[in-house]
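During the second half of the funding period, the structural biology subgroup turned its attention to how the target accommodates small molecules. The most pressing case was cytidine-5'-monophosphate, which had performed well in the primary screen but for which no bound structure existed. We therefore specified the complex as follows and requested a full 3D prediction, including the ligand pose.
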Amino acid sequence: MGKDVIIACDFDSAEKTFAFLDRFTGKKPFVKIGMELYYAEGPSIVREIKKRGHKIFLDLKLHDIPNTVKKSMAVLSRLDVDMTNLHASGTCRMMEAAIEGLTRPDGTRPILIAVTQLTSTDQESMEKDLWIEKPIADVVMHYASNAKAAGLDGVVCSPLEAGKVHDRCGKDFITVTPGVRFADGDIGDQKRVMTPAEAKKIGSDYIVVGRPITAAEDPVAAYERCVAEFVD
Ligand code: C5P
């Protein structure tokens, strides 16, 4: 499977998104559309970016009863995205239903990955708010195993967890890792970060990079630096 850099297009309008993508003359980076942009612009933003020739990771993190997730995934599969996701905490039954919904009549479907525990959740909030009293690293691995058992393709995880996920779930189980920063860059609000080169070494399959590219003075150069460190 191809390693790639996915740019998190965390913009609140189509106008800002296209102004950003227009800078990439000739190149068509893999882009992530998250809740902010999707809720601002609706499915048309997905169709328009697709029409421009980009691969799309639609990051909407579904979590609902199995029937609702199945029907929603069927709608998303018609948008022809390349990757989408859900919360593993929605249970194995919900993940199986998601696959059923996402699979097109010809048997193909977008890559489906699971969020295990959000990186904003720590041991303390997991115990206090969610009443989950196990080590968070074990919870992440358990959810990754559930995702694999349900037939999903991989998980979103910290680059620090990618190696362990591959050990547990196999090298073909995809790890998509945010929290990437250049060695000489600002880490912002991310807590546990890695450089693209380190993420490559540890075995991440895709890195998701937002502000180090979107807020760079020269986003194209920043993207190329990520590709040079992670892919080439
Ligand atoms: O700007 P930055 O590189 O921090 O952006 C990272 C992207 O990855 C954002 O879109 C963020 O929502 C997403 N993400 C994350 N941590 C997770 C899951 C998703 O940073 N655990």
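Two results from this model are relevant to the next phase. The mean pLDDT is 95. Residues 8 and 210 are 4 Å apart (CA to CA).
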